[in-house]
Design brief:
- The protein is of the alpha/beta class.
- The chain has a single domain (17-257), classed as 3-Layer(aba) Sandwich (Rossmann fold), CATH 3.40.50.10320.
- It is built from 9 helices and 9 strands.
- It has a 7-stranded mixed sheet with strand order 3-2-1-4-7-9-8, with helices on both faces. Strands 5-6 form a two-stranded antiparallel sheet.
- Helix 1 packs across helix 6 (189-199) and helix 3 (100-113) packs across helix 4 (134-149).
- It starts with 16 loop residues before the first strand and ends in a 6-residue tail after the last helix.
């Protein structure tokens, strides 16, 4: 269900800790990191979990050297937006496969960090920026399932044996979803820090033929997304699921039935 109504911001106290789960170095930096900068400026604790080290991303560089470079650039990019906890898993870049092991590893990270919100990449074949990359789709879907796994003590019981008790994040935030529900105002310093975070991937971006200049690309995307909000010049949009709220279809069904509604 879509609407022409302006998208709302998140409630001021919506979350205090956010875990971003993505496939590659630079995935958060293509727009979403400006929202991360806005969050950290408010005192929200944000951590990153990357499933790969991006070793298959540079045609002219051997994978081991590329992984070292991209990890280094990612740590610098994260620091630009106030993120100091950046963890890397060792799944193979370019050929991610959905697996129970991947779900377990993401579940472990969720239980360890105990976030109120988990941010993931869109898993649709076609997303906000066009056709989605295979690793992004796998990472997004595995992270979605791990959000539920994290709250169920009878899934991956070995994690309880490790001392990681179940934890259920309240929010799932999907970056790049074609049907966003919420926006984050990133005008000003947050946008500048978001630009700086992508610019930190300088050597990687230099290896990509025809890559557009970072500043006009990031500021332009944020300006376009701000058109979906009210009174905002630059924004980052997300599709958000609040697991503490009743499903929208239940609310609508009760409204049509003339009942008081769930909850």
């Amino acid at each position: 269900m879509t609407s022409d109504a302006p998208l709302p911001p998140f409630p001021p106290d919506a979350f205090e800790r956010v875990l971003c789960v993505v496939a590659h170095p630079d995935d958060v930096e293509y727009g979403s990191s400006s929202a991360v900068a806005a969050w950290t400026a408010q005192g929200i604790d944000v951590a990153y979990l990357l499933l790969t080290r991006g070793e298959a991303g540079m045609d002219g560089s051997e994978p081991a050297a590329t992984a070292e470079l991209r990890v280094r650039e990612q740590i610098a990019a994260s620091a630009a937006v106030g993120v100091t906890q950046v963890d890397f898993l060792d799944y193979p870049d370019g050929v991610l496969e959905y697996s129970l092991g991947m779900r377990r590893d993401i579940t472990r990270a969720i239980r360890a960090f105990r976030p109120d919100a988990v941010m993931v990449s869109a898993w649709q074949v076609e997303f906000m920026a066009g056709l989605n990359q295979a690793d992004h789709r796998v990472a997004g879907l595995a992270a979605l399932d791990a959000v539920r796994d994290a709250g169920n003590r009878w899934v991956f019981t070995d994690l309880v044996d490790e001392g990681l008790q179940p934890w259920s994040p309240r929010w799932l935030l999907i970056a790049g979803d074609p049907e966003p529900t919420h926006g984050v105002d990133v005008a000003g310093d947050a946008l500048e820090r978001g630009v700086a975070s992508l610019e930190a991937h300088a050597e990687y971006l230099a290896s990509l033929d025809g890559h557009p200049p970072v500043r006009p690309m990031i500021t332009g995307i944020a300006a376009l997304q701000a058109q979906r909000m009210e009174g905002v010049s630059h924004a980052v949009l997300f599709r958000a699921f609040d697991f503490h709220a009743p499903p929208p279809i239940a609310v609508e069904a009760m409204r049509l039935a003339g009942g008081p509604g769930p909850g």
